[in-house]
Amino acid sequence: MPLADFSRNRLMLAMACLAVARSEKLFIRNNTMSKRMDPPTTGRNRQLPSKLTPPTLPKIVPRPRLFRELDRARTRPIIWITAPPGAGKTTLAASYLNARRLRPLWYTVDERDGDLATFFHYLSLSARPLAPRNSPPLSHLTPEYLQGVSVFTRNVFEALDAQLPRSVALVVDNYHTIPADSSVHEMLALGLSHLVVERPVLIISREEPPSAWASLLASRRMTRFDGRMLRLTPAESRAIIALYRHRRRDAFAEKAMAQAVATLDGWMAGLVLLLEEATGSRTTLASYEQSRQAMFNFLGAEVFARMDVNTQEVLLSTAYCPVVTGAMATELSSHRDAESCLETLYQRRYFVERHDGSPASYTYHPLLQDFLQHRVQQHWPTERLAALRTKTAHLLATAGQVEAAVDLSIDAQDHDAVAQAIISHAPSLLRQGRFALIQRWIHTVPPERRANDPWLLYWSACASPPINAAALEQIRVRQEQAYRLFEARGERTGQVLAWAGVVKAIINSWDRLGRVDPWMEIGEVWLKDPSTDLSPPIRFEFLTAVLAVYSWCQLDSPLTPLAREELDKILPYIDDPFALAEIYSHSVHLDLYRGTNHHAKNYFSTRIRNQLGDNIPPLAQIVSDHAEGHAFWHRGDMERALASAYPIIELCHAQGIYFLIGWVAGLGAYPRLMLNRPQEAERYLAMVRPLYDQLPPLQRGYVHFIKAWHAYLVGDFRSALYECEQADRVNDGAQCSLAEIDVRVARAMTCHALGNDEEAHRHLASIEAEVQIADGNTFGRCLWLLAKARLHLDAGRDSDGLAALRAALTLAAETGQHYLPWWRPDEAARLLARALEEQIEPAFVSLLIRNLRCFRVSRG
């Protein structure tokens, strides 16, 4: 097994994370619960969530004084607008962009957007309608990017900036709702620093910028727009009052209002409430100056009491809707004129914003929403309040506002609804990289329910990144528990998915791989049963796990051709690049080790690579390019093998996919060691060493293996033997014959170099049974035969040595194997020269000499 695979565990971790996140196609296609979380229509014209659309402004009083201030502030690209609630921040931003003919990319954040993957998901959605038609969507923060999230952030914002016209301004509203400990603060500040200075950015918040934004202030890329400037001037207050002139008041009321306006100190929300209040002369504000929400509640209660009963009922019934349509308001309030009530409130500028769309939707100002929720909690019976929450959650889910619906179900302790949402939406959430959201939802369900619901166990395992051995063991345990529960229910689709989860958790652990054997007995029954009714994506997931086992643990399985045939049948149904790259990697590995390394024999791998194409996502590119690089040195294409690693490493750095660096480093070290360039290989070895403690036992064994080979090439045989012994020690219990064969051949060659042939023969004898299996590891058999040939020939046993040499080179020629690890050029040259003298596969041997830079030497 090539050393380049010493860190393959890191790739397999990504595979485990992403395999379940590919698409909701993996879930039951006929399952009525599998509704997408995305808005109901598809494509570029998909209806955006209201949080990503700017408010539609009614007739308002323009504020040219503030527009001029914003113009002056635009000498720096980022403007941070800070003001108390109800000061008119959102209205100012929307009206300013309209006045300056700037198109907004509008994103109203809330506390749920504190999850970085969620933030990037909605940022990607918001950009689609504004970007050119053929622009690729912005990337989701899926697991492979987590170690390089700063690079990912830079790439996303640079792509966003390149796609959007300069006339598009970025607006982040409600910024203060993002939790203080969220990484969004740092990453958004970093991302905005990569936008061109000509693009305006408005950040709207009740609070001052967090410390993560200090560098933007210091670099003069951001300016703060003082919230005190938003206070209404007397002239602006009079203009707003003029909008309400149709409401008649007596002289005493007008005088009282003038006094109240002075008390409000330019607070817009308070002025609107006063204008709504028919008896403003009785309002006393002095005791509420310290709290805007308290003042709002005090004034709002009087205004609310004078509304007609229908309007009151519509507002209270929709108190828990972050976004409400006319149909939702009608359903919740049972009033047919509910939409006209909302439209009237919007036209009266009564803390209701409208978002145009099909259908139009409405949102309440946070002050009003808090007031309404407080009121229903105070005045409605417990049963009625619970019923309202349940009904609202159902309507929100139906309207595609799934996150808000689930949060409401959590508050109502409606565990059935939460479980249903998890089962329905986990596939699309995983595809968006939103693992944390799934786990948060799952942990609101009572432990007993979680332990006895197989789908909750399954999705909990899928949403657990396999970052270390302990995490992988937890994943395996949960998947096994899910499998047993699915089995008891007779639910075959769940059984197959959980089975694949168990198998991949074992493979990814690179420890005690023999644990997969009893599971493969189950899987092979399904493999041989053509009547197993599974959709192509589910069957593909199953067959991918099967091929992973055959590729790394059971090379001698007679069912390998059947697994490939079954995969071949369903390839036309698979369009996910990473899924294809994963199966391509397994298939190439099988070609190399089972003796189908010739182009004429590896048609299945070639077909997958052709279907994969070239314009593919970064992780799929890295996986497929590594598989090809792996094949180059096995086929003797050393120029391409030498050149294969560096572009992949550059791609890893460019994309922030750092967890694969160690894995790709082996790709760079291996061909250089084959060509006896240990000094060049050292550069790649340096990338490996810091990863040692993070690797599972089998992978740590390969670190020792590569260090041993390096020591052997520089003539330090005792160090080489020590590293081989360490490799054997840490591999103990891993139960992987591929690793055992490589290390035992290396130990035999090192013992021979030290003059201990008895020990060398003992090591070769220990793996004889493994390498003699007819349909097993033909590559390992080549290595074993070449080592035997050298031992016999060096000891003068020409008959045995030539027989082993002939068998080795004949097999290598048949299987297209040009790979000779653990040989120095002088050793390989002597062996190959003898083969030419004996006319053993002369054409193939000449090709080996040329490819491996060996030179013919005489027997003397």
Description:
There is one protein chain. This protein is mainly alpha-helical. Helices cover 60% and strands 4% of the residues. The chain is built from 41 helices and eight strands. The strands form two sheets. A five-stranded parallel β-sheet has the order 2-3-4-1-5, with helices on both faces. A hairpin with a 5-residue loop joins strand 7 (352-355) and strand 8. Helix 22 (469-489) packs antiparallel against helix 23 (492-509) and helix 29 packs antiparallel against helix 30. The longest helix has 21 residues, at 469-489.
Keywords:
disordered C terminus; three-stranded antiparallel β-sheet; 860 residues; five-stranded parallel β-sheet; disordered N terminus; mainly alpha
Describe how the helices and strands are arranged.
Blueprint: H1 8-19, H2 64-73, E1 78-82, H3 89-99, E2 103-108, H4 116-127, H5 149-163, E3 168-173, H6 184-192, E4 201-205, H7 214-218, E5 222-225, H8 234-243, H9 251-264, H10 268-276, H11 292-305, H12 309-317, E6 324-325, H13 326-333, H14 338-347, E7 352-355, E8 361-364, H15 366-379, H16 382-398, H17 402-411, H18 415-431, H19 435-442, H20 447-452, H21 454-462, H22 469-489, H23 492-509, H24 516-528, H25 536-552, H26 560-570, H27 577-594, H28 603-612, H29 618-634, H30 638-655, H31 661-674, H32 678-688, H33 697-713, H34 717-731, H35 737-753, H36 757-765, H37 768-771, H38 778-794, H39 798-815, H40 825-837, H41 842-851
Parallel strand pairs: 1-4, 1-5, 2-3, 3-4
Antiparallel strand pairs: 6-8, 7-8
Helix pairs in contact: 1-23, 5-6, 9-10, 10-11, 11-15, 12-13, 13-14, 16-17, 17-18, 18-19, 18-21, 19-21, 21-22, 21-23, 22-23, 23-24, 23-25, 24-25, 25-26, 25-27, 27-28, 27-29, 29-30, 30-31, 31-32, 32-33, 33-34, 33-35, 34-35, 35-36, 35-38, 36-38, 38-39, 40-41
